[in-house]
Design goal:
Helices cover 44% and strands 9% of the residues. With 476 residues, it is mainly α. Strand 1, helix 1 (18-33) and strand 2 form a beta-alpha-beta unit.
Length: 476
C-alpha cells in the first residue's frame, strides 16, 4: 500500500479559526492512525493577501493544540521547500510539460476582453466558459501573459471519502489559469504539483473546492498523475445554522480560545466532533481515543453547527477531570489581581470550590473575586431577586440577624455550618432559596457562588461575620 501522507496547506492570510483547524485535525488524525506523515505547507502565491505574522501564528496554533507535523517550512523534510513561493521552478517545469503536450497556452486577452466574453454569455443566457473563447492561434508563452490550461471536457465519476460517489458532466470543465502574469501559480495548479511531488496520499479540503474538483481531475490526467484520496469537509455553520461560519461572522482565532483558558485537549475533542462521531453516544474523547477511532467514512456530509455553549460545557468537563494541583498550575496567570496577597494554600481551597463551576480559565476572576476582596454592597442583588424582592426590610434584617447569631457560635467547619444553616431553616420556616440566597448575597456580593457552607468555611468566620454586619448596616 502507498504510505499515508496527509497535509495541511493554509494560506498565510490571517488567523486560523475552527474551520481550518478541523481540516488540519482530520488530516493529522488520519496520518497518526495509519503511522504516516503529516505535512505543513504554506500556500503563499497570492502575495497581495498575505498578512505579516500569519505564518508564525499558524505554526503556533498547530503547536498549541498538539498537532505536531513531521515536515514543514521550519523543520524541513525530504520534499523541501514547503513554501509555494520558494517552489516556482517546479511549477515552471510542469507548465512547460503542459505547453509541450499542447495542454496549455498563453492567454492573449486583456481583463476587459475577458469581461466582454462574460457579458456576452450573460446576454445569451448561457453559463460563461472561457474555453468557448479560446484563441485559435495563441502567442508563444513567454511568461509575461497568464498561462491557461487547455481542458478536454468530459464526464467524470469519482469517489470522495466523505461525500461518497460523485459525478459531473463535461459542461463544468473549463480552461483555468495555471500561471499568472506575475509568474506565480494559481492555487488550482500549485497544489496539484506540490501534492504530487510531496507524495501526498490524502487531500482534505473544504466544501468550497468541490465544484473545482472536475477541473482538477482533468489536470491530473493531463499531467499523467495518480489522483490521491479526495475527502471534502462539509461546512461548519454559524450558531444559527443558516450560513457558513466565517471570520466576518465573528469566528474566533483559535489562539483566542487558548488565551481565554480553554484546554487544548478539549478544543481538539470539540473540533473533532464538528461533523464526526464514532457511531456511539460518547462525547468526551482523549486525543489517543480520537486517533484510534477516527475514520473519514464517519464524517457527516451535511454542515456541522458551531455551538460555543457546547464547547464551554466540554471544556468544563475536562477542567473537572483535572487533579486540583494540575489545575492550579494551569490557572496561574488567570487569578484576579487581588489574589496576589494570598498564599497558595488559600488559593487552592478557593480553586477547589470554583473548579465545579469553571468553564474556562478567564472566568476565574469573576467567580472568585469575592474570596480575596470585600466587594461593595450591591442592593440590586436582593431587589432583583424574584423571591427576595418580596420580603420587606424588616424581614430581611431579621433573617440576617438570626444567621449572624448562629454563625457567631460556629467553629466554621463545613459540617457545623451546614447543621446550623439547616436549623435556621427550621427556626425561620423559610425555604433554602430565600434564606440561603440572602446569606450568600450578604457574604459574597456576587450573583452566584459555590455551595454556601463551603464558601463560608473558606471565607472564614471573621470575614463572613463582618460582611453580614456590612449588609445589615446597609439596610439601615
Amino acid at each position: 500500500m502507498k504510505p499515508v501522507r496527509t497535509r495541511f496547506a493554509p494560506s498565510p492570510t490571517g488567523f486560523l479559526h475552527v474551520g481550518g483547524i478541523r481540516t488540519a485535525l482530520f488530516a493529522w488524525l488520519v496520518a497518526r492512525q495509519q503511522g504516516g506523515q503529516f505535512i505543513l505547507r504554506f500556500e503563499d502565491t497570492d502575495k497581495k493577501r498575505e498578512v505579516a505574522g500569519a505564518r508564525e501564528h499558524l505554526v503556533q496554533s498547530l503547536r498549541e493544540l498538539g498537532l505536531t507535523y513531521d515536515e514543514g517550512p521550519d523543520i524541513g523534510g525530504p520534499y523541501a521547500p514547503y513554501v509555494q513561493s520558494e517552489r516556482l521552478d517546479s511549477y515552471q517545469k510542469y507548465a512547460r510539460q503542459l505547453v509541450e503536450a499542447g495542454r496549455a497556452y498563453a492567454d492573449p486577452y486583456t481583463p476587459e476582453e475577458v469581461q466582454g466574453f462574460r457579458e456576452a454569455a450573460q446576454r445569451a443566457k448561457q453559463p460563461f466558459l472561457y474555453r468557448n473563447s479560446r484563441p485559435e492561434n495563441p502567442p508563444e508563452w513567454d511568461g509575461s501573459q497568464p498561462l491557461r490550461f487547455k481542458s478536454e471536457p468530459k464526464a467524470y465519476a469519482w469517489h470522495d471519502a466523505v461525500m461518497g460517489d460523485l459525478s459531473t458532466g463535461p459542461e463544468v470543465i473549463d480552461d483555468f489559469i495555471l500561471i499568472k502574469s506575475d509568474g506565480y501559480p494559481t492555487y488550482n495548479f500549485a497544489h496539484i504539483v506540490d501534492d504530487a511531488e510531496m507524495q501526498i496520499s490524502h487531500v482534505m479540503r473544504g466544501q468550497e473546492f468541490l465544484a473545482s474538483t472536475p477541473n482538477y481531475l482533468n489536470l491530473y490526467e493531463a499531467l499523467g498523475l495518480e489522483r490521491p484520496v479526495l475527502a471534502t469537509m462539509p461546512h461548519i455553520m454559524a450558531e444559527n445554522g443558516n450560513k457558513k461560519l466565517s471570520k466576518r461572522d465573528g469566528a474566533k482565532d483559535v489562539l483566542d480560545y487558548i488565551r481565554d483558558g480553554y484546554l487544548p485537549e478539549a478544543l481538539v475533542n470539540f473540533i473533532a466532533s464538528l461533523g464526526w462521531n464514532d457511531g456511539t453516544e460518547q462525547e468526551l474523547f482523549t486525543t489517543q481515543e480520537l486517533i484510534e477511532k477516527f475514520s473519514l467514512d464517519h464524517v457527516q456530509r451535511s454542515g456541522a453547527r458551531f455551538d460555543e455553549k457546547r464547547l464551554e460545557w466540554m471544556n468544563g468537563a475536562y477542567i473537572r477531570q483535572l487533579a486540583l494541583d494540575t489545575l492550579y498550575d494551569k490557572v496561574r496567570g488567570f487569578w484576579p489581581a487581588s489574589a496576589e496577597a494570598y498564599d497558595d494554600d488559600y488559593k487552592l481551597r478557593v480553586l477547589g470550590l470554583a473548579q465545579e463551576r469553571l468553564k474556562f480559565f478567564s472566568e476565574l476572576p469573576m467567580l472568585t473575586e469575592f474570596f480575596f476582596t470585600d466587594l461593595p454592597i450591591n442592593s440590586e442583588l436582593i431587589s432583583g431577586n424574584k423571591q427576595l424582592k418580596k420580603l420587606d426590610t424588616a424581614e430581611i434584617r431579621s433573617l440576617l440577624e438570626q444567621a449572624q447569631v448562629s454563625l457567631t457560635e460556629s467553629d466554621f467547619s463545613v459540617p457545623d455550618i451546614t447543621e446550623r444553616l439547616n436549623l435556621l431553616l427550621e427556626a425561620t420556616g423559610q425555604k433554602p432559596g430565600i434564606l440561603f440566597s440572602l446569606i450568600r448575597i450578604a457574604t459574597t456580593q456576587a450573583p452566584a457562588s459555590p455551595a454556601l457552607a463551603d464558601t463560608l468555611a473558606v471565607l472564614g468566620k471573621d470575614r463572613s461575620l463582618a460582611r453580614l454586619n456590612a449588609q445589615l448596616a446597609a439596610l439601615s
